């Protein structure tokens, strides 16, 4: 942003200079907007000035980082604040947590990892998203997660510029209730300036991938035992992986395998030098682009999905089961981000039953539904379905909100190449089933607004959480400067209206 002093209705505005005639689109190009003004702040003072300017001009504000959020959370007709130029990282000793690291809102997870990894002593975060291109404010505001917990639960404090133009700090020590609202706030409390994570000394993880026939391994006991003996696990279903083009009877779910991924802490040395790792990442990027082009070809030729999917599966499993040791951030970010590879993605979370049986039930339901679609000539997905197990959270708007810290939630992540026919029909059926059976909730950052009646549903299942969150939101944004999102407005208004009606009765 240009650093200038401008007078606006008596206010001294140092640096709130918008970028003229610029549009903004999100990562997968499904959202394209032309707001009244776009700002790219570089300092805390910039953020304060933008808020003052919005207040003077009676404008609302929404924020964006790298744009990987595929729901409407960043959409606005007024002021859009893109925070990617706020990218400083500092490390400090903490009397309670040992080590902490503070990152400005636009810091990528990659840059954050690099700073703390190269600190003396080397440090790391305990859990993070698979991709390291995401920005810290985006993953915090939306409750994004890795393989074991949501990222907001690794915060010890954060700073937000609220609608008054003040910089407010939130932490458990200052006010636990307000912190549980702030650390996953969907942009409703103000502009996140910085977040402070608990970090720890660097450690290594053994990352193992196994490919086993469904009927040989997939049962509740095996999932529970593996989870208890690992740092984190994921199970994946690769569509139609048992298909054989030369055998017309091979389109059969009984031929399919499960892909199991798990991480275990270890004192063993890493398996690769940094140079070898960089070369591997380069090959992964090239492979990701080639696979993406194959999947894109299915948009116009969807009946080839079983054949292409089986080919990609055979390429993946050609070396058999693998097990290698990495430094923690390299194992956590195990998928190399390739920004040119885009997809639709819906993710839902439901509470895991004590014996894990509902996880098995829903795994087979999704697989069988996919084959049911295939028998009708419909092939709605062409990428793996992922199941991950995430700890409960006390963040009020978390989809894993639960006061019991021992509760687990299963996250089901369903992806496909944009434009794949029948995607919405397929995912809506899954969403409705999980809503009805488990009161499942969608990941805020991914696609969910196309699900029929979803705002009414969320207003009901999040009712108690919204009531608590609204008290904090109204305190810091009484004029609703940051409440510029139709879906959230619908959810909150329906929920609060319902509560008011109950109170009157």
Can you summarize this structure?
This protein has helices spanning 44-56, 109-117, 136-142, 176-182, 214-217, 220-228, 274-296, 305-317, 328-332, 357-375, 423-438, 454-461, 463-476, 486-504; strands at residues 6-8, 11-13, 24-25, 32-33, 37-39, 61-64, 79-82, 89-94, 98-104, 123-124, 155-161, 167-171, 191-201, 204-213, 232-237, 257-266, 322-327, 344-351, 385-391, 408-416, 441-442. It has 505 residues and is of the alpha+beta class. It has four domains: 6-82, Uridine Diphospho-n-acetylenolpyruvylglucosamine Reductase, domain 2; 89-201, Uridine Diphospho-n-acetylenolpyruvylglucosamine Reductase, domain 3 (2-Layer Sandwich), CATH 3.30.465.10; 204-452, 3-Layer(aba) Sandwich (Vanillyl-alcohol Oxidase, Chain A, domain 3), CATH 3.40.462; 457-504.
Describe this structure as you would to a colleague.
The chain is of the alpha+beta class and 505 residues long. Helix content is 33%, strand content 23%. The chain has 4 domains: 6-82, Uridine Diphospho-n-acetylenolpyruvylglucosamine Reductase, domain 2; 89-201, 2-Layer Sandwich (Uridine Diphospho-n-acetylenolpyruvylglucosamine Reductase, domain 3); 204-452, FAD-linked oxidases, C-terminal domain (Vanillyl-alcohol Oxidase, Chain A, domain 3, 3-Layer(aba) Sandwich); 457-504. The chain has 14 helices and 21 strands. Strands 17-14-16-15-19-20-18-21 form an 8-stranded antiparallel beta sheet. Strands 8, 9, 10, 11, 12 and 13 form a 6-stranded antiparallel beta sheet that branches. A hairpin with a 2-residue loop joins strand 1 (6-8) and strand 2. The chain is globular.
């Amino acid at each position: 942003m240009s650093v200038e002093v401008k007078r606006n209705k008596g206010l001294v505005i140092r640096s709130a200079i918008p970028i003229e005639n610029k549009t903004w689109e999100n990562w997968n190009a499904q959202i394209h907007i032309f707001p009244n003004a776009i700002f790219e702040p570089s300092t805390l003072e910039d953020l304060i000035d933008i808020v003052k300017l919005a207040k003077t001009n009676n404008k609302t504000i929404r924020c964006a980082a790298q744009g990987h959020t595929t729901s409407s959370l960043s959409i606005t007709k007024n002021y859009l604040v893109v925070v990617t130029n706020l990218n400083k990282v500092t490390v400090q000793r903490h009397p309670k947590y040992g080590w902490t690291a503070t990152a400005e809102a636009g810091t990528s997870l990659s840059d954050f990892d690099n700073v703390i990894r190269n600190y003396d002593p080397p440090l790391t975060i305990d859990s993070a998203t698979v991709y390291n291109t995401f920005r810290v404010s985006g993953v915090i505001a939306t409750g994004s997660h890795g393989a074991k917990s949501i990222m907001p639960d690794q915060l010890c404090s954060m700073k937000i510029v609220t609608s008054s133009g003040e910089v407010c700090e939130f932490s458990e020590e200052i006010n636990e209730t307000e912190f549980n609202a702030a650390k996953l706030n969907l942009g409703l409390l103000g502009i996140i300036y910085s977040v402070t994570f608990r970090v720890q000394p660097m450690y290594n993880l053994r990352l193992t991938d196994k490919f086993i026939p469904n009927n040989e391994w997939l049962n509740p006991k095996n999932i529970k035992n593996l989870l208890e003996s690992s740092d984190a696990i994921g199970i994946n279903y690769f569509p139609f992986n048992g298909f054989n083009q030369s055998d017309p009877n091979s389109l059969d779910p009984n031929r399919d395998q499960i892909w199991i991924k798990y991480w275990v802490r270890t004192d063993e040395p890493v398996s690769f030098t940094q140079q070898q790792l960089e070369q591997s990442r380069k090959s992964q990027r090239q492979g990701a682009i080639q696979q993406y082009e194959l999947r894109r070809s299915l948009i116009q030729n969807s009946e080839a999905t079983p054949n292409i999917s089986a080919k990609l599966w055979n390429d993946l499993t050609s070396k058999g089961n693998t097990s290698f040791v990495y430094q923690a951030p390299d194992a956590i970010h195990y998928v190399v981000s390739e920004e040119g590879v885009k997809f639709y993605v819906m993710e839902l979370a439901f509470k895991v039953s004590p014996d894990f049986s509902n996880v098995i039930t829903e795994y087979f339901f999704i697989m069988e539904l996919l084959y049911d679609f295939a028998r009708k000539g419909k092939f709605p997905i062409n990428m793996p379905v992922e199941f991950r197990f995430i700890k409960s959270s006390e963040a009020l708007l978390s989809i894993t909100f639960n006061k019991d810290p021992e509760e687990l939630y299963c996250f089901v992540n369903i992806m496909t190449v944009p434009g794949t026919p029948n995607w919405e029909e397929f995912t809506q059926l899954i969403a409705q089933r999980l809503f009805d059976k488990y009161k499942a909730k969608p990941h805020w950052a991914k696609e969910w607004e196309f699900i029929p009646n979803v705002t009414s549903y969320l207003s009901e299942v999040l009712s108690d959480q919204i009531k608590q969150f609204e008290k904090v939101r109204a305190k810091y944004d009484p004029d609703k400067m940051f409440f510029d999102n139709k879906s959230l407005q619908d959810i909150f208004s329906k929920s609060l209206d319902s509560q008011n009606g109950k109170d009157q009765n």
